[in-house]
From TrEMBL:
It comes from the Eukaryota. GO terms for biological process: protein maturation. InterPro entries: LMF (IPR009613), LMF1/2_C (IPR057433). The lineage of its organism: Eukaryota, Metazoa, Chordata, Craniata, Vertebrata. This is LMF1 factor. GO terms for cellular component: endoplasmic reticulum membrane. Residues 2-99 form the Lipase maturation factor 1/2 C-terminal domain.
Length: 99
């Protein structure tokens, strides 16, 4: 069965020197097929899913302790590793210093 409400994990980064500053601007890493921007047309792929996007859906039902791979993913995004960035639809820090 599918729930009527959907919880999403959103990964964001900031270039602010103080991430706790209320004026800090947080920018989202978009996934190729995971729901996100409501103005973006839904992704349609068949018969398979993008695995990372699919895993993110299930991770929203649990804690990060049950999905330790999310911590590693966030670390690789912070390090701007090209292999990981290739799995993302957008990199809001392209051409800039890492978050």
């Amino acid at each position: 069965s599918i729930t009527k409400e959907r919880t999403e994990v959103i990964l964001q980064g900031t270039s602010s020197l103080d991430p706790n500053d209320p004026a800090a601007v947080w920018e989202e890493f978009d996934f190729k097929c995971k729901p996100g921007d409501l103005k973006r047309r839904p992704c349609f792929i068949t018969p398979y899913h993008y695995r990372l996007d699919w895993l993110m859906w299930f991770a929203a039902f649990q804690t990060y302790e049950q999905n330790e791979w999310i911590i590693h993913l966030a670390g690789k995004l912070l390090a701007q590793e090209e292999e990981i960035l290739s799995l993302m639809a957008t990199n809001p820090f392209a051409g800039r210093a890492p978050p």
